[in-house]
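User: For a reading group we're discussing how well predicted structures match intuition. Take Bulb-type lectin domain-containing protein. Before you show the prediction, I'll give you the sequence so everyone sees exactly what went in.
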Amino acid sequence: MCISWVVLLYLVLFLTPSCPALVTALPAPSYLTPNASTSWTNSLSAPDSVKFDDGSFARIILVSGSSDEVYGACGCGFYCNQTSCNTQLFAIFSLSYRSGKISESDSPKVLWSANPSINATTLQLTSKKGLVLKDGNGTAVWSTNIGSKSVAGLNLTDMCNLQLLDDKSATIWQSYDHPVNTLFVGQKLVAGQQLTSLGGLFSLHVTRQGFFAYINSIPPQRYYTLAANNIRYVQFLKDRLYIFSDSLWQLWYL
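Assistant: Thanks. Here is the predicted 3D structure of Bulb-type lectin domain-containing protein, as structure tokens, for the group to look at:
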């Protein structure tokens, strides 16, 4: 299985593609430092871009892990699922490697995105604002909220967590705090947060009163309920989803 080192919780199904031999070489770092000109534009002609066999396209900015063996990795960058790129995402996505090269036959699976419904073409990394995403007109459509803190580095961990770090390597901002459609091993979903599948058909909600799953029709249809009091968060650990109360005692696991 391509992603053998991390178990990902998907909302609809588990995707376990095989690793074919069609590959393309692509060196990429897992850590970057900001400067005045650190920016990326979504372009198929960029040297760090890959076009996959299904027509999807990615410009890869960061890659986690080592590419020495057959394995699955996390990439971070621009992604679109059609050649025309009608919707361009800044995203974290799965990548399949073989012998140090990215497989073009295994299209990426989007695991997190900053702009699921807004088109974007340029990403900037600055010490004062962190990450800033802009559309084709140069208008900022998304940014990290770092207040007055200063960014010293951008890091993508082996567990697919995108982090902004200060000069002491402390985390200023991380994608784990802003879940979208996937919950990673060790990641928490706190009361008030939710996961929504790509396309928006299914969602999981955590509230103080319980854990709920919906089909997002009109009106929404609840198809799973786990009622409880004073839920603080749920956390994905190993192969189970654990639910914790205010006292941090485990209530249930799924």
